[in-house]
Design a protein that fits this description.
binds 2'deoxy-thymidine-5'-diphospho-alpha-D-glucose; binds nicotinamide-adenine-dinucleotide; Rossmann fold; alpha/beta; single chain; 350 residues; 7-stranded parallel beta sheet
């Protein structure tokens, strides 16, 4: 059987690995190519259960290398691209903005150029799907929601680089007629997330009875979505969205950081058979993140109304599943928190 070649970038990362699993299992008629250069955030262990599947191929490579990318497109003739590869952590972008410009902007541009060149005779049935973030919209006050019409107003080097890549995708649509869609999602959580982000970092610290570094006063708000619900949304957008559209994806699930951390502590005390309240004692308020966005909240009514998507996992259930996964995957956690992680942690938190 000749399978349709689909390129997924960043498939060894957190969201990418859940998406790849869903696509490989649901669509035997596709050949899913996972292009990832395995940075500190990329981990093939995330995909060990599907690595032998006939419709899955891993390619190690860097999206910032234009010569390599052009050859790859020529070789495999990808009909669609779902682009997730990125530097994704805000705190790292504050330390090293250039790395974010290279991967998130130049890397995206390389993929767009290669796609445009490959299909220069016509874009029939082709699609470039760019995965982006709600952070491009900047920060909300206590009320209001981000809609697809909200103006871009990025505040961190990470969100500025993602905003720029979104603009390039749109510009390639307008200028060269590339068929594209973009989705902008809120904060994801779930299994396999690298423990630099709030939830897995705090799970790891609670396990090890280390301080829980809450930035500022902890009153910052995020809208949390279980990662598998994001992968389901991407699947729907990929197959059903109108070309040239943007979709916001969110959990209808806002939490102040401090309330979330308290809930997480309570769940973990129970799971670890610790005295109630013992993990909360680890909460430590630390220096704030520079340029810290106060609140994100997504109006996801467009994807709900047009494509029938809603989140399937409620937050308490999702958080419990996430904690269970980390507790039963200690080896995964130990592997990713050795080496470079220790240096990063020391620099960021001491
Ligand atoms: P992640 O950091 O877990 O994974 C990123 C992956 O990209 C890794 O596997 C890494 O090895 C790979 N990668 C990085 N640079 C690369 C390069 N130059 N060439 C090839 N591969 C490279 O990120 P994530 O949290 O899974 O996010 C995936 C995408 O979704 C990103 O584009 C991010 O901006 C977006 N997003 C994330 C969230 C979230 O809450 N995590 C929310 C909305 C949108
Ligand atoms: O909104 C979508 C975005 O969500 C994605 O585009 C990003 O890739 C992803 O990293 C995430 O960005 P945030 O900055 O919101 O996520 P993070 O987990 O880093 O932080 C969540 C909140 O918790 C934020 O208000 C900062 C705070 N925080 C974070 C860390 C790591 C702390 O208080 N202490 C910490 O140690």
């Amino acid at each position: 059987m000749k399978r349709k070649p689909i390129l997924v970038t960043g498939g060894a990362g957190f969201i990418g690995s859940h998406l790849i699993r869903l696509l490989v299992k649901s669509y035997p008629e596709y050949q899913i190519f996972n292009l990832d250069n395995l940075t500190y955030a990329g981990n093939l262990e995330n995909l060990s259960d599907i690595q032998g599947e006939a419709n899955y191929t891993f390619i190690k490579g860097d999206i910032t290398d234009d010569v390599f990318i052009n050859k790859l497109f020529e070789q495999y003739k990808f009909e669609s691209v779902i682009h997730l590869a990125a530097e994704s952590h805000v705190d790292r972008s504050i330390e090293d903005p250039l790395a974010f410009v290279k991967t998130n902007i130049l890397g995206t541009l390389n993929l767009l150029n290669a796609f445009k060149f490959l299909w220069k005779e016509g874009f029939n049935n082709k699609l470039f799907y760019h995965i982006s973030t709600d952070e491009v919209y900047g920060s909300l006050g206590d009320v209001g929601l981000f809609t697809e019409e909200t103006s871009y107003d990025p505040n961190s080097p990470y969100s500025a680089s993602k905003a720029s890549s979104d603009h390039f995708v749109r510009a390639f649509g307008e200028t060269y007629g590339i068929p594209y869609v973009i989705s902008n999602c809120s904060n994801n959580y779930g299994p396999n997330q690298f423990p630099e982000k709030l939830i897995p970092l705090f799970i790891n610290n609670i396990i090890n009875e280390k301080p829980l570094p809450v930035y500022g006063d902890g009153n910052y708000t995020r809208d949390w979505l279980y990662v598998i619900d994001h992968a389901r949304a991407i699947d729907l957008v990929f197959h059903n969205a109108k070309r040239g559209e943007t979709y916001n994806i969110g959990g209808f699930n806002e939490w102040k950081n401090i309330k979330l951390v308290e809930l997480l502590c309570d769940i973990m005390d129970k799971k670890l058979n610790r005295t109630s309240g013992s993990s909360q004692k680890l909460i430590t308020f630390v220096k704030d993140r520079p340029g810290h966005d106060y609140r994100y909240a997504i109006d996801a009514s467009k994807i709900k109304e047009e494509l029938g998507w809603t989140p399937s996992v409620n937050f308490e259930q999702g958080l419990e599943k996430t904690v269970d996964w980390y507790l039963s995957n200690k080896e995964w956690l130990d592997n990713v928190t050795s080496g470079e992680y220790r240096e990063y942690y020391k620099k960021q938190y001491h």
